[in-house]
Specification:
globular; four-stranded mixed β-sheet; 27% strand
Length: 77
């Protein structure tokens, strides 16, 4: 099963990213686990410099911006 993580402290951009990920997953019809990660130590462990960030199966796919729903769908395909 695909594991998707939205990394960020819970700011507005992080919330928008989480909403877009949920929408993309629903439109693609894929089964996955979506997790919001707000623990700063866990975020730092990924090695990212700016949030929000999107990780798929432990690999950072986007960082420092909020991709569109269409871009997220590309990243998940």
């Amino acid at each position: 099963m695909t594991r998707i993580q939205v990394l960020g402290p819970g700011c507005q951009k992080c919330n928008v990213l989480a909403e877009r990920v949920t929408q993309a997953v629903r439109e693609l019809g894929i089964e996955c686990e979506i997790e919001k990660v707000s623990d700063i130590n866990h975020i730092i462990a990924f090695g990212i410099i700016s949030t929000p960030a999107l990780a798929v199966n432990g690999t950072i796919k986007a960082s420092g911006h909020v991709p569109s729903v269409e871009k997220i769908k590309e990243l998940l395909s």
